[in-house]
Specification:
The chain contains ten helices and twelve strands. It is an alpha+beta fold. The strands form three sheets. A five-stranded antiparallel sheet has the order 2-1-5-4-3, sandwiched between helices. A five-stranded mixed sheet has the order 7-9-10-12-11. Strands 6-8 form a two-stranded antiparallel sheet. It catalyses: ATP + protein L-histidine = ADP + protein N-phospho-L-histidine.
Length: 469
């Protein structure tokens, strides 16, 4: 109600000002046209009565005295210019002639010549007042232009402005009174309507899922309030039932997520163990002179993966982070090269221009990061004619940088923002926990992971860990 009064007062004031302005403009335009028509008639009368030849050169002689008579009779100043824009005669006194433009600008002459009505009105603002100047041709008896008639016109809006101020003051007083009335009515009406709603509002503010909520009891409520109270009390009953179901569902969901995570974590070391056993089975040769070294490497790889599974099981049983962090000073080049030994694909290449880059990480978690990224790269290149996976290790300022690049199918634009979300996957198998786990491990060690990808051309994952200073 208050807003309606305020908006109405502003709109009416705006419309009033606009209306006064339009009326003033129309009045001055009509008045200038009337003045111009009267002056032209006087000019034509002088041209008919003159004994001088009606030419441009004689305009000064023809209107030598008559221009002052026309100005006095019409109460309008006027100036006469030749067709080149040079001042010939002015109705002003001689000491005022210096303030008049002795030559018209080429733009005015051009606009006057190209005007269909052979009339041009120039509008300007001088000293805070609006100023208009009309230009028309003076024609001889054959309607041939011989000069230019200029009528300066100053718009005096002082009377209209005074009327407008008085009207707005009266209108403002009326609307101020209406505003006070509207405030009073709004206060009493809102108080009457909301007296029961305040009780309901207080109870809604106290509603809490974690405890038992009280129902609303109001004596002699109106029909609408009674319906609202009944709906609220019914909602409280349903809310208590939903809270019990929600708590049970959350516990079940938490166990399901834990089971998925544990299954995924156990599956990670099982895959490289299987690959290692298969590789050893194919390449085992009892007669190989280096058989003891290979068996040692084989055993070392299996022991590492078994240690990983053991740490996962320990973490799950203790409800701790998986797996527990055992920070140690590592040569990241050596660990990454060791992690790649479990893969048999001949298109996987390792590059490092440095033999030693020291970081402080958990050996098992670093291997898990590398194996997860490489496994993802392998799954991205099954349909490529010449698959290529390049794993590189380098120093990048204060960080050790690991890059895993492939020329696989790439990642679509719509999937890039979700690629690290748990349970998000674009593959037909798997639970989508791998990259989310990798991101958690990297951020735990104050590192960061990023990637660039072009669909159909490949993907590059970059992992950075702080160097040991």
């Amino acid at each position: 109600m208050i807003l309606l009064v305020v908006v109405a007062s502003i709109l009416i004031a705006g419309v009033t000002v606009y209306q006064y302005k339009e009326q003033s403009e129309d009045y001055h335009s009509d008045r200038l046209e009337r003045k111009e028509e009267q002056v032209q008639q006087s000019v034509e009368y002088v041209l008919k009565k003159t004994t001088y030849p009606v030419t441009t050169k004689n305009l000064g002689l023809i209107f030598n005295e008559e221009i002052y008579q026309i100005a006095n009779v019409q109460n309008q100043r006027l100036n006469i210019y030749d067709l080149e824009g040079q001042l010939i005669k002015s109705s002003r006194a001689k000491f005022e002639v210096d303030s008049i433009a002795n030559c018209l600008s080429p733009s005015i002459l051009s606009l006057l010549e190209t005007s269909p009505t052979k009339r041009f009105v120039d509008q300007k603002a001088l000293a805070g007042d609006n100023y208009k100047a009309s230009y028309t041709y003076i024609n001889d008896k054959r309607f041939k232009p011989i000069g230019i008639l200029n009528l300066p016109y100053y718009e005096d809006d002082s009377f209209n402005n005074m009327e407008l101020r008085e009207f707005l003051m009266r209108l403002g007083g009326v609307y101020f009174l209406m505003l006070l009335i509207a405030i009073g009515l709004a206060y009493f009406i809102s108080t009457y309507i909301t007296r029961s709603l305040q009780t309901i509002s207080d109870m809604l503010g106290k509603t809490d899922l974690r405890k038992r909520n009280q129902k609303i009891l109001i004596d002699n409520p109106s029909e609408e309030i009674e319906k609202l109270v009944t709906s609220y009390n019914a909602m409280i009953d349903e809310l208590e039932q939903s809270a019990v179901k929600l708590a049970r569902s959350e516990r079940e969901q938490a166990w399901r997520e834990m089971a998925k995570q544990v299954a995924h974590e156990i599956k990670n070391p099982l895959t490289p163990m299987r690959l290692t056993v298969q590789s050893f089975e194919r390449k085992f040769d009892p007669q190989d002179p280096n058989i003891e070294t290979k068996i040692g490497e084989f055993s070392k790889t299996l022991i590492q993966q078994i240690d990983t599974m053991s740490s996962i099981a320990s973490a799950f049983s203790n409800f701790a982070e998986m797996p527990a962090q055992q920070n140690e000073t590592l040569n990241i080049v050596e660990i990454v090269r060791l992690a790649l030994d479990i893969f048999n694909e001949d298109y996987i290449h390792f590059i490092s221009e440095e033999e030693e880059i020291i970081t402080k990480l958990d050996r098992t978690q670093l291997i898990r990061v590398v194996t997860n990224l490489v496994k993802n790269a392998i799954q991205a290149v099954p349909e490529v004619d010449a698959p290529q996976i390049v794993v590189s290790v380098s120093s990048d300022g204060d960080f050790a940088k690991i890059c895993v690049a492939d020329n696989g199918i790439g990642i679509e634009e719509g999937f890039k923002e979700k690629i690290f979300e748990p349970k998000f996957t674009t593959k037909s198998s798997g639970m989508g926990l791998g990259l989310g786990m990798v991101k958690n491990i990297v951020e735990t060690y104050k590192g960061h992971i990023s990637f660039t990808s072009k669909p159909g051309k490949g993907t590059v994952f970059s992992v950075k860990f702080p160097l040991v200073k």
